[in-house]
TrEMBL record, chain A:
GO biological process terms, semicolon-separated: 'de novo' IMP biosynthetic process
Naturally occurring in which organism (per UniProt): Marininema halotolerans
Assembly information from the UniProt record: Part of the FGAM synthase complex composed of 1 PurL, 1 PurQ and 2 PurS subunits.
Protein name: Phosphoribosylformylglycinamidine synthase subunit PurQ
Keywords: ATP-binding, Cytoplasm, Glutamine amidotransferase, Hydrolase, Ligase, Nucleotide-binding, Purine biosynthesis
EC number(s) recorded for this UniProt protein: 6.3.5.3, 3.5.1.2
Active site (UniProt): 86, 195, 197
GO molecular function: ATP binding; glutaminase activity; phosphoribosylformylglycinamidine synthase activity
Catalytic activity: N(2)-formyl-N(1)-(5-phospho-beta-D-ribosyl)glycinamide + L-glutamine + ATP + H2O = 2-formamido-N(1)-(5-O-phospho-beta-D-ribosyl)acetamidine + L-glutamate + ADP + phosphate + H(+); L-glutamine + H2O = L-glutamate + NH4(+)
From TrEMBL, chain B:
Gene3D superfamilies: PurM-like C-terminal domain, PurM-like, N-terminal domain
Class of enzymatic activity (EC top level): ligase
Subcellular location, principal: cytoplasm
Name of the protein in its database record: Phosphoribosylformylglycinamidine synthase subunit PurL
Length: 227, 757
């Protein structure tokens, strides 16, 4: 399974994603510069965290115009796996691949912590190795993670199982319905504010992120096996 | 070459002519004394023009030349078997084996923060990051040491909130984790807060860079943000006392762009990897002037600078403004002639503005051209190496002599539970979660010990080893006895990294003091440096870089002398990484070190009496060495579950802090000749609280005995209460959760107070 991790000017978690994939899966992963349009060589695309273009406008608002996003849209349409983490989630929202929008955290401050989450949907390519309603702990680090959508959208997300992770305990940013991560209707594009790549080995404080990557690999292997 | 001596028209009117400068003594506006002005004339053999004078004034400011502190700094030990680069470059470099080195430095940004806290603090972080990557190193961690006035003041709350937000903004966007630090609150900093930022980087030996210009005819390349009018004379501003007029110096504060910094960092590190650079230096304090002059002087060459080619963000800038601008996120590179295109290719990829702005020349002339005219021509050595040095004399203040007679009997009657709650509630001692939650402490996925323990720990990709780091300083001790306080700062920083499982390697220091022209302040500086130097020699941790921030005064009153020590230690194996928190019920509590019940300068004294008096705790460096060696040995032999340095608040606070993280209680029952309050809250140095499994106790005790370290078995980790019995009577019995709430909520509550009341 070949992974691409995108690199925009201002991406900070690109190397962390590469390290995590290598550590957990040992599968090949390439850094792909934001000017590259074609992502046909890849089975999964990770849009990493950071501050693309400084996020001086709205988080993700500039990155979504990068040439590489053409390839991301194509991959998503083809049913390949697209994972947006933190700033990557924001970019996928701005690109229209995921629902909702991000506002400033309700307390108006950046928040970094290790946050308990509930797995709300474990039937996705990204979550099948988790238990339904399992509590996991993942690091968060963001200033604009306050997920917002209108009531109609929220109803639809609930009905279609698109809410994938919820914050447990104190909501760290004020997001609607404690939403921490959502997927598209097809289930092949996931965005989440927490950082699975930061929870891989014991000294990180949690190892709960690894299952997201093992889920992706198992999905791909089964798909290839079935084909 | 005789430069054009005509005055330039500026947005502020006409620049003064050389004759006007002399006749109206305008050099004093730039912070130069009449004698320094005479020296400039002597060096040039003529009257300096406004541009030249501006350049001399920043290069000869304390900030750039250390003219007041240099004779003292020479007393610090700067060499050792692991030192690859001592003071004098962007940052110090220490060998950590496997062909790798750690690169680190701390720097102050106090005055900018006092007038514009968000940008002032943010650009402090930006500057120190550039110092580290200009060495060729990849920055891997940030720390900071902050001092503010009491949070009761709305102005202080504003400064504190904005400074923390600024630090978070910059570090988070650049993508370097902020892994540790310290914050203290004291009335002495009300008008003059301190923001000291530290950066730690990793490098392979062969990638080490230098800030030097070499090779006659080689191009000097400017890269990064364009030059604007921000921060003009920042270095001079940093070298004078703050006053009501300081608010007018807001233009002396720069605005930071961490996104630009991120691009600049990646581009420079790519150039390092491609082995293209001959010299590289950050344009920090005194901007283009200081970086180009220092590189030129170090290379023993001359330089021609062409200011028309400098990227500028404003029109009509004069040579004076371009040379003295402190616009952020700029670097100066020197490469071999003919490699300009290779450099440009990398810089273009990162979408960074760049330009060839000068050439290395033969000789020692530092010449500046603007609009095809020479506008300045100076011997470069007179700017750097021959900067004036002031040899000052210190004078022992009378308050120091009075200190010997102080007694602390007035604290002995306190109820121990009340006293504990009072110190846990004190913002200096309370949980700093409100602060560090705003910093991304985990980006780069190498942070093994996050903020909140004695020292932070970063693992190194591909190796079993790790780095521990800590910043420390206790200005109350320094105020009461500068020598002891200076030495204690080094000892505590070392103790902190030892408690994390590391061998202390070296320090970087930031010396925050008042006006050195005052004999009492100079006495503080001199003694603190001597104390630090002795501790560094004893603990084998040389000083490999740092920064001096003098003139920290408001309306003529100096801050407490505040030397801050940034220590880096090497953890040999990730298995040795240790934190301060108790791990499991049933573990035995063992206290190493002597308790002398010393309350002088203690947190309890400050909180209860509102002032400090007496002498600070004694520091016995032999005892400190024995303690650290014992603790490190016990950690490396996996004998202990936790290790926590005793510092402010003494034993009672150390027990509480170790109990909090895992909500584990303490059952302690001891006999002592000391009274309860000094026993629990005295701040005797060279002490470490260990928790360890029962079966390891005998081994730990025999090791302590062997090294001559006094020990005391206090009790055990048990239940969910902090229960302390002394000489048969229970003096504290509180649920850990209740104490933790007091400790956790102190700063958030103080910050939630209305900004308008």
């Amino acid at each position: 399974m070949r992974f691409a991790v995108l690199v925009f000017p201002g991406s900070n978690c690109d190397i962390d994603c590469e390290k995590a994939i290598q550590k957990v899966l040992g599968e090949p992963i390439d850094f792909v510069w934001h000017t590259q349009r074609n992502l046909d060589d890849y089975d999964a695309i990770i849009v990493p965290g950071g501050f693309s273009y400084g996020d001086y406008l709205r988080a993700g608002a500039l990155a979504r115009f990068s040439p590489v996003m053409e390839g991301v849209v194509k991959a998503a349409t083809e049913g390949k796996l697209v994972l947006g983490i933190c700033n990557g989630f924001q970019i996928l929202q701005e690109a229209g691949l995921l629902p909702g929008a991000m506002r400033m955290n309700d307390h108006l401050k950046f928040r970094c912590d290790i946050q308990p989450l509930t797995v709300v949907n474990n039937s996705l390519p990204f979550t099948q190795d988790y238990q339904m309603n399992e509590t996991i702990r993942l690091p968060i680090a963001h200033g604009q993670g306050n997920f917002y959508c209108d009531e109609a959208t929220h109803y639809e997300l609930t009905q279609k199982g698109q809410i994938v992770f919820r914050y447990q305990g104190d909501n760290p940013n004020g997001s609607v319905d404690d939403i921490a991560g959502v997927c598209n209707q097809a289930g092949n594009v996931l965005g989440l504010m927490p950082h699975p790549e930061r929870a891989i080995v014991e000294w990180m404080g949690s190892q709960d992120g690894g299952k997201m990557f093992t889920s992706m690999l198992r999905y791909w292997e089964e798909k290839i096996g079935a084909a | 070459m005789q430069p054009n001596q005509k005055s330039k028209e500026t947005t502020m009117g006409m620049e003064p002519t050389p004759e006007e400068i002399r006749d109206r003594q305008l050099f004093s506006e730039l912070g130069l004394t009449p004698s320094e002005y005479q020296q400039v004339q002597h060096h040039l053999g003529r009257l300096p023009n406004w541009t030249e004078l501006g350049i001399y004034s920043v290069m000869w400011s304390e900030h750039c030349s250390y003219k007041n502190s240099k004779p003292l700094l020479k007393r610090l030990p700067t060499d050792g078997p692991r030192v690859l680069q001592g003071p004098g470059e962007g940052a110090g470099v220490i060998d950590i084996g496997d062909g790798q080195a750690v690169v680190f430095k701390i720097e102050s940004h106090n005055h900018p923060t006092a007038v514009e806290p968000f940008q002032g603090a943010a650009t402090g972080v930006g500057g120190i990051i550039r110092d580290v990557f200009s060495m060729g190193a990849r920055p891997v961690a940030l720390l900071n040491s902050l001092r503010f006035g009491p949070l009761e003041s709305p102005r202080v709350r504003y400064l504190f909130e904005q400074a923390v937000a600024g630090i978070a903004h910059y570090g988070n966007i650049v993508g370097i984790p902020t892994v540790g630090g310290e914050v203290e609150f004291d009335a002495t900093y009300e008008g003059n807060p301190l923001v000291n930022a530290m950066c730690v980087g990793i490098i392979d030996h062969e990638d080490l860079q230098q800030g030097v210009a070499k090779g006659i005819g080689n191009p000097v390349i400017y890269v990064g943000a364009s030059t604007g009018r921000d921060g003009i004379h920042g270095a001079t501003f940093a070298s004078e006392e703050l006053s009501d007029a300081s608010e007018e110096k807001r233009p002396s504060v720069q605005a930071g762009d961490p996104f630009m910094e991120k691009l600049l960092m990646e581009a420079c590190l790519e150039l390092v990897q491609k082995e293209i650079l001959l010299g590289i230096q950050d344009m920090g304090a005194a901007g283009l002037t200081c970086s180009s002059a220092e590189m030129t002087a170090k290379g023993g060459v001359g330089l021609d600078l062409y200011l028309d080619d400098v990227p500028q963000r404003e029109v009509g800038m004069t040579p004076y403004e371009i040379m003295l601008s402190e616009s952020q996120e700029r670097m100066l590179l020197v490469v071999a002639e003919g490699r300009e295109a290779e450099v440009k290719e990398v810089l273009d990829k990162w979408e960074l503005p760049s330009a060839v702005v000068g050439r290395v020349t033969e000789g020692n002339r530092y010449r500046i051209f603007h609009h095809r005219e020479c506008v300045a021509d100076m011997p470069v050595n007179t700017l750097v190496d021959d900067a004036p040095i002031n040899y000052r004399q210190g004078e022992e203040p009378s308050s120091y002599r009075d200190g010997t007679t102080a007694s602390h009997q007035d604290l002995h009657h306190l109820d121990a539970t009340d006293a504990l709650q009072q110190v846990l509630r004190a913002p200096s001692l309370a949980s700093k979660r409100w602060v560090y939650q705003q910093y991304d402490s985990m980006v780069r996925t190498s942070t093994a010990v996050r903020p909140g323990s004695d020292a932070a720990v970063i693992v190194l990709d591909g190796f079993d080893k790790a780095l521990a780091m800590s910043v420390d300083g206790n200005s109350r001790y320094v105020k009461l006895d500068p020598w002891v306080g200076g030495a204690s700062a080094v000892a505590e920083a070392a103790r902190n990294v030892v408690c994390a499982g590391a061998r202390p390697l070296a320090i970087t220091d930031c010396l925050n003091f008042g006006n050195p022209e005052k004999p009492e302040v100079f006495w503080q500086l001199e003694n603190a440096i001597d104390g630090m130097g002795e501790a560094c020699r004893q603990l084998a941790t040389p000083v490999v870089g740092g920064n001096v921030s003098l003139y920290n005064e408001t309306k003529g009153v100096a801050i407490h002398p505040t030397p801050v020590v940034g220590m880096v230690g090497l953890v040999e194996s990730q298995e040795h990484i240790t934190t301060q928190s108790f791990k499991q019920a049933g573990d035995v509590l063992l206290l190493l070190g002597s308790n002398r019940g010393e309350l002088g300068g203690s947190e309890l004294q400050q909180q209860v009496l509102g002032s400090i008096s007496g002498r600070p705790p004694v520091l016995d460096l032999e005892a400190e060495k024995a303690l650290q060696s014992t603790v490190l040995h016990l950690i490396q032999t996996k004998t202990v579950s936790s290790a926590h340095d005793l510092s402010t608040g003494g034993l009672a606070v150390a027990l509480a802090e170790a109990a909090f993280a895992n909500a584990l209680g303490v059952h302690m029952d001891v006999k002592t000749d000391l009274e309860t309050i000094p026993y629990l809250f005295g701040e005797s140095q060279s002490r470490v609280l260990l928790s360890l499994p029962k079966e390891s106790v005998a081994k730990a005790i025999s090791m302590a005995d062997e090294k001559g370290v006094p020990w005391c078995q206090l009790g055990e980790v048990r239940g969910d209460r902090l229960s302390i019995t002394i000489n048969g009577s229970e003096v504290i019995s509180q649920p850990v959760s209740r104490l933790q709430t007091i400790w956790e909520e102190a700063i958030p509550c103080a910050m939630n107070a209305s900004l308008t009341n």
